[in-house]
From TrEMBL:
Protein family: Belongs to the major facilitator superfamily. Nitrate/nitrite porter (TC 2.A.1.8) family.
Transmembrane helix as UniProt keyword: yes
Membrane topology: Multi-pass membrane protein
Entry's transmembrane regions: 39-60, 72-90, 102-120, 127-146, 166-186, 198-218, 284-303, 324-344, 350-375, 382-402, 414-433
GO biological process terms, semicolon-separated: nitrate assimilation
GO MF: nitrate transmembrane transporter activity
Lineage: Eukaryota, Viridiplantae, Streptophyta, Embryophyta, Tracheophyta
Gene3D superfamilies xref list: MFS general substrate transporter like domains (1.20.1250.20)
Name listed for the protein in its UniProt record: Major facilitator superfamily (MFS) profile domain-containing protein
Chief subcellular location: membrane
InterPro entries: MFS (IPR011701), MFS_dom (IPR020846), MFS_trans_sf (IPR036259), NO3_transporter (IPR044772)
Amino acid sequence: MESAQVKPQPFSLPVDDENKATVFRPFSLAAPHMRAFHLAWLSLFACFFSTFSIPPLIAVIRQDIKLTDRDISNAGVASFLGSIFSRLAFGPICDLFGPRLSSAALSLLTVPAVLAASLVTTPLEFIFVRFLIGFCLANFVANQFWMTSMFSGCVVGVANGVAAGWANTGSGVTQLAMPLIYTWIMNTGIQSSTAWRLSFIVPAMFQAATAVLVLLYGQDQPGGQHIQRSSGRNHKQENAYEVLAHGLKNYRGWILGLTYGCSFGVELTVDNIIAQYFYYRFDLNLQVAGAVAACFGLANIFSRPAGGVLSDKMARRYGIRGRLWSLWAVLTMAGLLCFLLGRADSLSGSVLLMCAFSLFVQAASGLTFGVVPFVSKSSLGVISGMTGSGGTVGAVVTQMLLFSGSKFSKQTSISLMGLMMIVFTLPVSSLYFPQEGGMFCGPSKALPSHCDDGYHHLLG
């Protein structure tokens, strides 16, 4: 007797044959696609807010616990190191357990680290706490994994770009909000040494609240939760080792990791140093320096999504070649603007160049993740983790080489960082997809009969 056919599940948005949405409506709350989008960006926003809640208060914290310039630099590197390890591990975790549980668990587990920032009394404790807080940025992998699970190839670039872009504004909002929170607490009559410590209760509670929302209202896939979806498969599910090995052997993931190190890695470094840069270079007060620095992070609300939109539009006209050429051009322009930022001598010129630089470097991050979903379907989480980790590796390298100690001035370091971006963007030209081609080559005429399931047409 034939089994009864399962009635298709209705969706508010038009979907493809995998039930992935073929349109992207960022101001809709339609379940499950747009609800997942809003939960993903808000949860990651809270993680960025927590991670970068410390730099805008550095001028106050350093006086209280006697931090040196090297302590501050080492703490910045430590926060990125925590993110590297967690992002590498988080890819396979998302592949096996789904983005909902993975995201919520990570956010909740790192809340105590955010609260611990209010308890530090020595430079070593300060560095260790920044290391632990950095782990929450692995939530980015779940964010991008979730969007790729919910949206079809024709809109996945913009979905990834907006989800990450809106989330990244957390690094800008915290630059503006934390000095205001600190000032408000001070105005109640509490001493400075206590006020900055109490300030960290706000990002910790916000992060915990978003994690609970993800658990209560999130859905891994259009058809249900990850475990429910996996149990219906006829083929044997790959184990963690196979998923990891499959992703690590794909050279495209490594090159995209390098590219992301030159875009998002540089962005992380700037988030760490930009408030101090304007505070000391142009003798601004804490609130004004925070407001200027906030402009850099807040640009993510439209710049990174613009990168995703550009990637999808170029793909519609030119396929993967359009995605790769636009990635190279935008990131090269970002490197040039970064170089010029370090050479600017006036406050107004520096602010204008910083804003222009933020637009291009953040758009390049969106363009990078416009390519990621087409590298490998079976190891999507691993490829996302490799690329995401490349961003934090880039941040560590630039922080250690250019902003640790007093070998270079901040101005010179910023210019050198721009030159590094231009040089290390060149390997994008070596990316090649047999069914779609590359920057300089068309698709292969003789495709193997059993291509990797990641080699699928971009326009589906």
